[in-house]
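Morning!

This is the sequence you dropped in the shared folder:
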Amino acid sequence: GVFVIASSLQEVLASVHQGLKEMEWIAGFRLAIVAATAVGVVLALAVGAPLTLVVAAYPVAGVVGFACWYAVTSRRLRPRVDRASMGTVLRDTLLYGGMYVASVLTFRQGVVVLSFFRKGVEIADFAAGYRLLEVSSKIPLVISMALVPEMFRSARENPARLELLFRMQVRVLGLLVLP
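The structure's back. Tokens below.
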């Protein structure tokens, strides 16, 4: 739960840097959080820590990563709420956000449904396959997320550019998926 909340808050910070077209900040913090988590897990395993301590590395890394990222972002760009523009932003992104939530929920329901019909190892094998798929699905997601701010802007200001971005994204993702 803590890891999911920290990760969700990290997405808010990522959207700030996407809007500023500062993808290097997003990449840097995400890689640092993954590296810190890996180091924490390896250190915990190296000292023979119990499984609960190894698992605790994930929420700790998520919270510490979010805190560091927030400190840097809020010093560069002071957080403020502009109620007048908030309605426009929510209207423009509500469908996109709803689609993302629905995809996450439907992607994970297979394990829950299977647990009603099968036990133990079969569920674990099924879930492991989905974990591998979930990791590989991050590649197109990162590419799509990098283009979202520009695509939203182009939808309003330059439909020809939106079409170009769409075609470019489909080609790149096709090249990544086909091999």
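Headline: The chain is about 90% helix and 0% strand.

More detail when I'm at my desk.
O.
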